[in-house]
Structure formats: C-alpha cells, structure tokens
Amino acid sequence: MQEPYRQKVTVTLKNRNAFLVMGAPRSGTSVTSNVLNTLGVNFGNKERFLDATQHKHNPIFFEFQWSNDINNSLLKEVNQNWLEHFFLPDASFWQNNLPELRKYIELIKESVYEEWGQEKHQIIGIKDPRISLTYPVWQVALSELGYNVEAVLVYRHPQHCAASNAALNDKSIEYNLPFWIQHNLASIFWIRSFGGHILSYENLTLNSFETVEKLAKCLKLDFNLCEKATEVIDSRLDHQSQRLNAKPLSTSVVRCLHFLQSEEKESGDFEIFYSLTQSMSDALRPIHSAQSELADLHLKNLQKAQTELQQVQAELQQVQTEFQKTQIELQQAQDSWENCQNNIAAIKTSKLWKIRQKWIDLEGYLLASKLWR
Q1: pLDDT tens per residue across span 166-186
Q2: Is residue 153 helix, strand or coil?
Q3: In what order do the strands lie in the sheet with 16-22?
Q4: DSSP letter string, 208-241
C-alpha cells in the first residue's frame, strides 16, 4: 500500500456497524449472510466474492479471498492450519503469540477501507468461518476504524455439519466433529467477551420467518424487510438431516451444544469447560501431529503405489498392443499360406497342369525306351 493511502485509513468511520458472521464450515453462514444482506447489511461487491463455480457446494459466497488470506496468514503465524490443527485461543492468545499483530490489524483496516471506506454504507458484514478463531484481531481493527462490532454465530446440528464437511473433504464424521467443537466454543467465548447473537441453522430453515424476525430485532435491522429476507431461505438446504440416523454424541459435543442452545449467558461452568478443552487440546497436539504425519506418509505411499500401478498398467497395455499386432501378423501369414495352397490346388486341376503331367509322363516313357534299347 502507498503511504498516502495508509493515511486515509487513520480516519475513523463514525456511527457505523459491522457484523462478523462466523461458525463452523457448512453451518449455514452463507444463507445467514444472504438474510442479513436482504435486511440491509452490506457485504461488499458481490463480483469479488469467492467464485461459486470453483466452490460448487454453495450457490453464492458472501466471502472474500482477501479475508481468507488474512486469516490463513494469522493462523500460520502461530503455527496453525485451518481445519488441520485443533486449538482454542483465549483473550490474550493473539497478543501473547503474535508480536507482529499490529501488521495484521493495519492490513484488515486497509482491506476494509478499500472495500467500503469510500461508500456510505452504515452497516457492513464480513463472513468467514475462520473469524471464529481470529475474532479479537478483527474486533480491534474494526473498532479502530470507528465501527461498532458485533458477532453473529451460526451453528448447526453437529452430526449434520460434520457429515456435510465429510462429503467435501473425504474425511470421516468423527474427524470433522472436533472442528465443530473448536469453531463454536471459540465463538461462544468471543461472544461472552464482546457480545453478539447466536443463531440456529435448523431454526432458520424450519422456522424461517420467526427466526428472521428475532434476528432483525436483536441486531436492530429493518423489521419491514423480514418477509423479503425469509424468501432467500430454502428449507431443502439442510440435506444431511434427512440422510443421517441419530447417533450418540460425545460428552464434549453435547456440552458444547448445550452452551449454544442455552439462553442463559452466564452459565458458570463454561469457563471451566473451555479451559479443560484447551488443556486437552494442548495435551493431544503431539498426538494430532503424529497422526497428521502418519496420514501424510500414508498418502505419499498411496500416491507412490498408484504411480507404480499406472506404470505397470501402461507396460501391460504396451504388451497387449504388441501381442495384438503379432496376432494380426500371424493371421496375415496364415491367410497368405492358405491362399498359396488354394492357388496350388487350382493349378493342379487346370488343363495346363494336366498337359504338363502327361508331357512329363511321355518324357519319362521316351527316356525309359531309349535306355532299354
């Protein structure tokens, strides 16, 4: 960025609201963003959203590549990979673990100003599931720009969400469930610290109008647009709920689901559960790393075996081609031999052949007579 542009970012944008839409992947953040957009929240230029032709599991993304890139860089700075490593940040995590945090705060401010700063949008929305883990960084950056920041957490039934992710990443439901816990627990932590609203995806698809009305009321959006906003919701979106049989959920998943569904914001044991889950994730990190390395090794061996198999198949195909060529040549030789035999047989039955045979017989007779004399 040029220095004059950076100077512009220091100007605060008074009396503006920013909603950060977050939650686990495949939880309904896109349809929620669509609802909020219809209620008057500006999510930026749609032409710059992620390309739905490349990400075909969503008809439209209210999501920017630049926000994905910033969040991925933030996670990489603390040796984390999104949807690969399970970790739970707390209030001081980013400040303690990222000395260059200011660089990312300024990058967010510049990106937001470039997207909305020159327009008169009083209410903006930014959607990215990764914000569930990086929320405090965004909260600081947007607050410094003068925005009133509020989180919108969208959650979905854990098995349905994990099954939807499993269909995309070819992992098991069990593999995906911890990341459901991770995104939702972290999001609850930020909402308890900074404020926000929790929304059920199932309620949004099954009780659409009532849920949209409640959302508009909580976020102080245009109540007159609720009916129009309801029209963007398709109740058929929850595909997995009709495919899965109910299975027992782990204690951790049940506890997390309880905190999401509870209307009581001050549940006394949330902090204890969050801390225990943090400790458990720290203790399990070496195991997860070993599992990841083992999975990478297995993948490399599998790819090597597939390459060798393809080479053998190519060689076999070449041998089959040569064999077929030899068979054709052999058949041609046999046809030629049979043709010669047929020609010889035809000659032997011809008049010329009979005259030749009689001449040979006569010649033999004359020779014998001469020798006799």
Answers
A1: 888 888 888 888 889 889 989
A2: strand
A3: 123-127, 16-22, 147-155, 196-200
A4: HHHHHHHHHHHHT--GGGHHHHHTT--GGG--GG
C-alpha pair distances (Å), 58 with each of 46, 62, 84, 167, 202: 14, 10, 22, 13, 17
Widest Cα–Cα separation across the chain: 144
Pairing of β 16-22 and β 147-155: parallel
* Predicted confidence (pLDDT) per residue in 41-84, tens digit: 999 988 888 876 665 556 667 899 999 999 999 988 888 888 77
CB 9 within 8 A of CB 145: yes
Q: What is the dihedral of CA 185, 187, 193, 196, to 10 degrees?
A: -130
Q: Which of 192, 185, 203, 186 is nearest to 257 (CA)?
A: 185
CB atoms within 10 A of CB 141: 24
**How far apart are the two ends of the chain, measured CA to CA in Å?**
127
